[in-house]
Structures are given as C-alpha cells and as structure tokens.
Write a structure and sequence with these properties.
By secondary structure, the protein is α/β, with parallel strands linked by helices. The chain folds into three domains: about 90 residues, Udp-n-acetylmuramoylalanyl-d-glutamate--2,6- Diaminopimelate Ligase, Chain: A, domain 1 (3-Layer(aba) Sandwich); about 140 residues, UDP N-Acetylglucosamine Acyltransferase, domain 1; about 35 residues. Helix content is about 15%, strand content about 25%. It starts with a strand and ends with a helix.
C-alpha cells in the first residue's frame, strides 16, 4: 500500500488533493476502484474521466483543469503510469527462496537474496548476481553470468558463456545462445560450422516469450542497454542491436546485421543479413528490409489490406509494370524525336 504523497515524492512530481489517499494497485480508467491509481494519456478516453472511480488519476496540468478528484500531475501520464506500476510491482516481490529440487553446481557463485525455482539447473562456473529471481525449469549453462536483480522466468534456457547485465527480464520459453544457422555447402551436403561465440546483453534488457537469440558464429551476438524484444522474435548470429531499440513480435533478423540505437521495429518485419541500419530508424509492421538504411526516419514496405478482388487486379498490374515502363519510355523517346524535328 502506498499513498499519493509517497508516489509523488518517489517520482519527484506534484499532486493535487489528499496526499494520504491510500493506493494498492494500478487500474484502467474505466474499471479502477477507490484504492487504485489510473491515468489519462489519450484524449479519446476523456469521456471516462468524470465517471471513473479511481482513487487517483495521473493527468497533465491541462487535463486536470476540469477534474475535481485526486490527481498526480505529470507532463507524460503514460510514462508516469509505467513508473508507478513498477513501484507497486516492487512491493510484490517474493521473499528469496531456493527450492529443494534444484541442481546448483558447487562451483557456481550465487549472490545474496537470490530465488531459484523447482527443477532448475545452474551449471558450473555460473555467476548469479544479487537479488536475481530464477523460475522453475530454467537451465543456465556453464559459465553463464547474470547481473544483479535479473528476472529469469520459467522454462528459459541460457546457453554456456552468455552474459546478461543488471535488471534483465527473460520471459518463459526464451532461448539465449542457441546455435546460429551456420552452414557451408559441400557436394555431399551441408557442413555445420561450429558456433563458438556467445550472447552478451547490456543492462535493463527484456526478451519476450519464446524468442530466440543465437550465439555468435565466431564473434559475439551483442544487445546494448535497454533493448526490448517482444515474443517470438528470431535474432540471428552476430547481430548487433544498439541501446534502447525495441522490436515487436514475430520479427526476424538474419545474421551479421547491425541495428542502431533508438530504433523501433514493427511486428512481423523481416531483416536480411549483413546490412546496417542507422540510429533512429522506424520500420513499419510486415516490412521486408533488404538493404542498409543509412538515414534515420520512418520506413514502410508492406501493402495495406484491401478487398481480394482489388488486390488481384493490382497484382496483375504490378506484374505488368516493367512492360508498361518500356512502353512509356518508347512514347517519351518518340515524342522527343517528333519535337526535335519540328
């Protein structure tokens, strides 16, 4: 339980109303109760404000002008809501506990305040930082290093030698450090190339459920600080991702591609290998990136949804573009010739 005043002090914000208003959780504007705090960040939900039962609402100064309830004032209510939710989540942290049915190698170094769930395996020479929470059926391969206060949820596999910074969150089923897709073609078939690199992640990274990050083939696969990956993403070997870049679900990045800082990659994007993407690039959902992007900006490549009959007609026309372009060029040349003869 926290009061409005405690939240305001923790986030260095001002408030209006009773500072002793008790709050135990966050809630949506439409459904929050008197002991919950909500927010309004999108003006299309303004109609819900006056009828909301929330004990406190996070509002901008302008939005709060006609609201008589308790308010936590913020220039960015959505970001403030996220920080408030973190404060409540921290209050719910369980007491440290190591389940009796675990296998922790005697050479592993486990810091103070670490929790480990049932049937988890921590192999030799691992280093687990202070305050980490490791769920059930997790595997940490030999020599894995976890920074402080990491959360490794159930069913995660982190292969040998991989390194995570502080406060990383890995969601269920994710695999960190799987072999990259390294193959050479011989007359008799495929020859597997041993993948000898690891995955190195900075601080405050988050990896979604069932996402796979391949280890490097020779060098390492590297994620900077505060990289956020959604569910079911594939990151190929030797990929480099800059600080604060975020990717939505089902995106796939082929090997040896470098993605800059502060990029936003939409869902279902395909990025080919061995290219470079500049800082500050936004790629819209379902796009295919086939070449390097050298300038920041917003890029799209997907066709918007349309009726099937229209799509079929357009697909036919698309196949005719080359022929049509040749006809246009011929007409231009003919027109230029006739003009020059006049």
């Amino acid at each position: 339980m926290k009061t409005l005043r405690e939240l305001a002090d923790a986030l260095s914000l001002s408030f209006r109303g009773d500072g002793d208003t008790p709050l135990k959780a966050v809630g949506s504007l439409a459904n929050a109760q008197a002991d919950q705090i909500s927010f309004l960040a999108n003006s299309k939900y303004t109609h819900q404000l006056q009828d909301s039962k929330a004990g406190v609402v996070i509002l901008t100064e302008q939005m709060s002008a006609d609201y008589s309830g308790h308010v936590l004032l913020s220039d960015d209510p959505y970001v403030t809501f996220a920080k408030v939710a973190q404060l409540f989540a921290a209050c719910e942290r369980p007491e440290p506990h190591v389940h009796s049915q675990t296998a922790i190698d005697t050479s592993a170094q486990v810091g103070d305040g670490v929790s480990v769930g049932a049937f988890t395996v921590i192999e030799g020479d691992c280093v687990v930082g202070r305050g980490c929470q490791i769920g059930n059926q997790v595997t940490l391969g030999r020599g894995v290093v976890l920074g402080q206060d990491c959360i490794i949820k159930s069913g995660v596999t982190i292969e040998a030698g991989c390194q995570l910074g502080d406060r990383c969150v890995i969601h269920p089923g994710a695999v960190i450090g799987a072999d990259g897709f390294g193959l050479a073609r011989d007359k008799q078939g495929w020859v597997k190339i041993p993948q000898t690199g690891v995955v190195i992640m900075g601080d405050d990274c988050e990896v979604g459920a069932n996402t796979t990050i391949d280890c490097g083939a020779i060098d390492d696969t590297v994620l900077g600080n505060d990289v956020r990956l959604d569910n079911q993403i594939q990151i190929g070997h030797n990929v480099q991702i800059g600080d604060h870049t975020a990717m939505a679900g089902c995106t796939a990045v082929a090997g040896s591609t470098t993605i800059g800082k502060n990029c936003l990659i939409g869902g279902g994007v395909g990025i080919v290998g061995h290219i470079n993407i500049a800082d500050g690039v936004v790629v819209q959902a379902m796009s295919l990136v086939t070449h390097s992007i050298k300038e920041p900006g917003n890029y799209s490549a997907a066709s918007p949804l349309q009726k099937t009959a229209e799509w079929r007609r357009n697909a036919v026309r698309y196949r005719q573009l080359d022929q049509m372009a040749k006809k246009v060029n011929d007409l231009v040349k003919k027109n230029q010739k006739e003009t020059s003869n006049e």
